[in-house]
Structures are given as structure tokens and as C-alpha cells.
Protein 1
Amino acid sequence: MLKGIGASQGYGIGRAVVIKDCNLDYKYVKYAGPEEEKAKLHRAVDAFVEETKALAQNLKQNAGDKEAEILEGHLVMLQDPFMLAQMEESIDNGMTAEAGVDTVCSMFIDMFSGVDDELTRQRASDIRDIKDSLLRILLGVKTVDIASVPKNSVLIAKDFTPSMTSQINRENVSAIITEVGGVTSHSAILARAMGIPAVLSVVGVTERICDGDTLIADGFKGKVFTSPSQSELEEYSQKQQAYLKEKESLNEYFGKPTVTKNGTVKKVYGNIGKAEDAQNVVQNGGEGIGLFRTEFLFMDREHQPTEDEQLEAYSTVAKAMDNKEVIIRTLDIGGDKAIDYLCIEREENPFLGYRAIRYCLDNKELYKTQLRAILRAAQYGNIKIMLPLVTTVEEVKQAKALIKECCQELEDEGLRYREVPVGVMIETPSAALISDLLAKEAAFFSIGTNDLTGYTMAVDRGNAKVSYLYDVTQPAVLRAIEMTIKNAKAAGIPVGMCGEAAADERLIPKLLEWGLDEFSVSPSSILQTRKNICLND
Ligand code: PEP
Ligand code: MG
């Protein structure tokens, strides 16, 4: 049995599909002479063309023409005689086919990525894709097509990027296991959003498990059973049935208002990481979106999303929620959320460093692009803006001034937009301690217990050695929460919670007693949280 962290509830039983990082190192490949290397190159190009055509066809049927066009563009680029001629010339000069592909593609990548124009920079990332595919084919490295794994697959990877998770078909994947990440890592957040059981931080799991192994993943206790016995398989399949039955029984809370035993009306919202997750919130009976983590839009790509791309994502969510509240948190990067193309320098203490609102207020153009997109999307629904990692009143004032500036620009440009309420996330001890002052500037509060717990207890959220201190029920954290709720109430502004603690059954009686208005949880926890609230005073 392997031990990890239970990061998304449920039991998964199935066969392992191990997704290994591609090793595209070709230094050991020996030069076989110009003719053989060129023949190898052409075979690889033919295979690439065939593979890409099939993929494009598949995408046309399942995703849409736009995605397929990108792949068809790859074919045009590679078939450019100049590019191929350069590769052949490198081979004539004594390089292997692999080295020729790498050298020529890298030269184009450098050339395109230094250019200001967005479309040209996009070509650099296209060529990077072509290079990786050609090297993979030349080196015979196999990759896993995540979208088409068979039913009852248990996916295993070092970590899951947002683009990997977006390919997951929930019907076929019974669990996710990773080597890194904790309860609040993006793999965990995405797994919970999709309702897939997950065990994270299992040391060496990609090496210790082989493709096809039968596995049991316990997303509650963070256990992975390798080679399970017949009795273990029976025991867990019973547990799985019982859990699914209990989940089904929660359907009686679908579409019901969230009202406590003494008649106070509350709200249960969902947390999302990408636009498509809004559907999960609707399907699970969420009354709104309490946290849209917009950094996922910025991750796993070569350059920042444009204003129009962001507008598309935010307005999709606003429309899907049909005038229900949608709280969009502005970019929260830095700390454990790195984005390479933003080139943030490495820091000794990234969690205490240049991140979230600090970074955004110092990079106004990038921030304004996001704010403008949110303001424009607001015309399609009930959007609010939320500021992350606030520690001073000044930060809120500065952000609000920037939002005003964006409104004026949109007005001048004749673009439609709507002014929106601006709220503050309370996720630092400093924000909790000055919550009375912040309440004068904020339209609402949302308590981010994931960070608040870490910062209050002075403990790293992802460090296993001190994880015993990462505990939201510690009196210091509870006091910070209570103080925030009381100060919000005194100022007459609504207060919610969007950290994991909002779904913590142990805390719900206290949160209700203090008067928390809104609980924002993973889509898969919405009905359970509503039930817990309805059964309390
Ligand atoms: C939090 O800190 O509680 C929170 C919701 O934000 P994140 O987990 O994205 O840091
Ligand atoms: Mg946070």
C-alpha cells in the first residue's frame, strides 16, 4: 500500500495508465550517415503528417474547427521547403536527424519569440510543438492520449497540468494519482471540480506502478492499494457503492434553497478554475460562483491571454450562471503558481514575495487587460471582482482606481461594459486584523482559509513535515475568521468563504453561529455542504 494525501473524495478502482514525462534527450543517438539520417527525417515527417491529419479530423468532430485549424497550420509550416531544406543541410554537415530538427526549429523559435507581434509569437509556440512531436517520433517515445483511455482507468502522472486535465473524460477515469501536490494544489482543485477521486503526493508513484496494474485509490484516506487482494477489491467496491448511494441521496438537496433549521437563508456557491467548470456548478446545484481562479487561464501556455480571450472565458461563465452571482478573482500568481512567460525572478520566500495583487499593481498593463475583460464581460451577467492576497487598505484603493481608469478607457473607446462591486479576499492575518478598515473599501469579503491557515500558523501549505500545524481548527485561525465575519457584519457587507474550510463539516456550526453568508466549495461538495447547513441552526 502506498500513502499520499487524499485530495478529492471517493474510491477509484481500475487499471493504471502511467503518464511519464517525455524524455526527448537524443545525445546518445549515433550519426548513421547523411542518406540514412535524411531517410529517417522524411519517415518522421510522413508519420507526423499522418498523425496530425488524423488528430485534426478527430478535433473537427469533437472540439471544433478552430482547434483543428491550429494543427492544420502545423502541417503547412513543416511542409515549408525552406525549413526541411535547412534540416537536410544540418544533416549534410554531420548532424543526426534529431539534432537537425532541434537546431533548425530552435532557430525559428528564437527568431519568432523575440517579436512584439502576438501572432508571430504564436508561431514560435507552434514550432515548439512541431519540434517536440518530431523528436518524439524520431526517438520512438510513446505518449498517452488522455482523452481516449479506456473505462476504469486510474491516471498516474507526476502532476497534471490544466491542459492535461481538460482532456480527461470523467466517464472513463476512476481516479487520479500524482507524485506532487497537496489538498490545495491545482491538480487537487481540478480533480474536485470534476468529482474524480484523487490521491496526491505519492512518492515515486510513476516509477512504482506499471501500466495495466490493478489499483484501488482511496481519495478519503490518501491510500493507494497496489496488487489488491480479492477481499480488498470486494471491500472497496462495497465502500464505493455505499459512497455513490450516499451521494445520490444528496440529490434531494438539488434545487432547494439553503436554509438553516432556524430559518436563516444561506448560499452555497461553487469554486471554478476554468470556464467549462461553470457547468459542473450548475449540475451540482450551486447558487452562484464564489471563486473563479483566473490564474488557470494564464497557466500552461506560452503567453498571456488577450483581452478578447479573457472576455470570452468570463462571459461564458456569466452566461452559464444565468444572472446568478459570479465572483471573479483577479490574477493570483506567484507562490506555488508559477507562470514561465511572466519571467518572475526566483525568490527566497515566494509565498511572502512578489505575487497576486502585489505583482498585478506593479504590472498595470497586464492587470488592466484582465480588468477590462471582466468589466466587458459584466454586461452578460452578475459579475463581481475579488482582489487576492490583500494586506493593506492602500492596495484596495489602488486597484479600485485602476478599475475606474479601465471604465473610463472603455467609455472613451465606445466599448460596452458594466461597473461591478469590488470585494476583498481575507487570506492574510494582516487583512483579518484590519478587516474593520478594509470593510469601508470593500463591497464584500470572502475568507480564503487555504492561505489564511498557512500564513496565520506560519506554516508552508505544501510541506509535509509541518503539515500537523496546517490546521484550520487552530484557535488562532478560528479567531481570524470570527473577527473577519464580525467586522463584515458590523459594516453591513456580505461575507463568504471560498477556502476549503467552507466545506468542512466540523466548522459549519461555528461559521453559522458567527453569521457567514455564503459558502463557496468545490462543485462536487455543494450538495453535501447544503445538507450540512440545513441540518444545523
Ligand atoms: C485560499 O487561499 O483559501 C483560496 C481560496 O485561494 P487559493 O487556494 O487559490 O490560494
Ligand atoms: Mg489563496
Protein 2
Amino acid sequence: MWDFPIFPKQASTVAWSVDALTWFILAYNVLITAGVFVCLIFCAIFFRQKRKGEVGSQTHGGLLLELTWAVIPTIICLITFWWGVKVYAELQVPPADATDVYVVGRQWMWKTQYPTGHKEINTLHVPLGKPVKLTITSEDVLHSFWIPAFRVKSDAVPGRYTTLWFEATVPGEHKLFCTEYCGTEHSRMIGKVVVLEEAEYQKWLSEQAEFGDALQGRKLFTKLQCVTCHAGESQAKAPLLEELYMKKIPLAFDKGSPVAPGTSVLADENYLRESIRYPSAKIVAGWQHPSIMPAYDESLVSEDDLFQVIAYIKSLRRGQTPPRIEVTTQPRALGAPQGK
Ligand code: CUA
């Protein structure tokens, strides 16, 4: 199964722009290399020693020549830079309506997680002709997520989220790789992207769906006892999390805090993640420093679970924080007295 084409098929909307830039750089490199060799061969023949004992004359200066070889490469570099920035920006900024898929890398597999809450290993299902945004992290070491046919690649970095996006244009299966050496079985960290027509994709999603990520996250929110403090009551010990996502959060400043007075931070996924893993890193203005919240490290919340908790926080609207004590009926079989 030797299947590593130098120029893989173009299967996403950005593939063409990446290829065009690559071809442009390749073309002028070939042209310049060829030019150097033509000059070299020409000079070797034309200026060779024709008679025994002949000494060549020395020439100094040549303003026009020097300007030519300074200005032309500068122009080429500037064009490459401008073009590169344009393609990079296109690759970096996902459209607002992109579907979210979460990806966790670990030795040695890719785990994917959909908004519907279900998970896959080494497989990524995406709809055809719809933008998809991947939020990527790693549970152990550096990995790098790469779909050659889409011309997209992003490092999977432990302790932070990176993103990439694409819109698939060719239905069927495409390969995905880990492209950063990550240990013994790095070369086997291979998977596939399955591009389905929109209707098929929706059908597939509904077949796979159990509960939404946010719904699973709500359960964890109660289970991990987040709700005990983030309760939204007057005597609550922690800030309310409703409608928090993508808000500007003013940070607390005192002697111990590492931020400058008046700093605020955007409550994006990375901020939410940091606040769960390292609660004292950035404290919201008006709350106690250092934080009284325990640090939820990997032993308490896995990367998979963390995605769900964050999905839940993102989905929280005004008045939706669950009640502190959820009313449950105790099973009679346990024989415990009721209502105590
Ligand atoms: Cu993971 Cu290489």
C-alpha cells in the first residue's frame, strides 16, 4: 500500500491556493538554479585559460549588475511574503458557521469527538462542502495532525488548544497522519478522513449520536461539583459561568497576581481550559486570590471530559445553571430513610 504521492489530490477549498504558492516558489527556485548553472558553464568555457601561462584580468564594480541581483530577489521575496501571509490567513481563520470537531492526540492514536458527543478513533467524518473547524490537543507528547489532501496541518500540543479548518470538496476517504515524531509507533499513527454528502453526514450523525457534548458536560459539571461554587446565588463562592464564552473578563490584581492592573482576557476555549486546569492563573476581578478552586488536572478530568465541560460552559445561557442540589429520589432497595 505505497500511497505517498508527491502532489496529493486537491480535496479542499484551500488546497488550490497552497499548491499555487508552492508551485510559484518551486518555479523561481528552478529558474534561479538553472540561471546559476548556465552562468557557471558559460564562464567555465568562455573564460577558460586559452594559452599556457595566461593570467586573467580583474574587474571591479558593476553597479547595474549588483542592483539587478539585489532588486530582483527582493521583489521575489516580497511577493512570496505577501502571498504567504494571504494563504496563511485563509488557513487560520475559520468561517463563523463551521462545524466543531475536537481532536485529541495520544501515543499512538487520534481520538475525534463530535458535537453530538460520540467519539471515534483514527477516523474523522466530515460533511462535503461545509466548513469544519478542528480544535486539537494532546494528552501526552507533541503530535501533529495532517491531512495532505486538504493541505492542512496543525501541531497537537499538550496543555493547549490549536485549531485548523477546512471545507472538503471531494467525497470519499482521505489519509490523515501524525507528522511529528512522537515515539516508537509514530509511523503507525495513521487514520482516515471520510467525506460524506451533507444528507449522508446528517444520517450518520443521527445514527451515532447518544447525547450532545454539552449534555455530557452538564453531567460532569454536577459530578465534579463545579456547581457547588459556581452556583449563581448571592453567597456563591465562585463567579457565575452563564454567557461567559467569548466575553472580555476583567482580571483581579493584587500583590500575588501575575497580571498588570486593568488587564482583561477573552474567555475563549484556551482561557476556560486554563481556568479549570490552573484556577489561580487568572482570577476574575472581585474574587479571592489565590483561588480556592482545586486544580482539575488529568487525574480528575481527562482531555476528552474537559472538551465536554467546556462545551457545556459555552452553551450555558442566562438562568441555566443547574440547582445546587438536584432533587433525586433514593432507590427504595437501599433501605435508606427518605427525605433525610
Ligand atoms: Cu503522534 Cu507522531
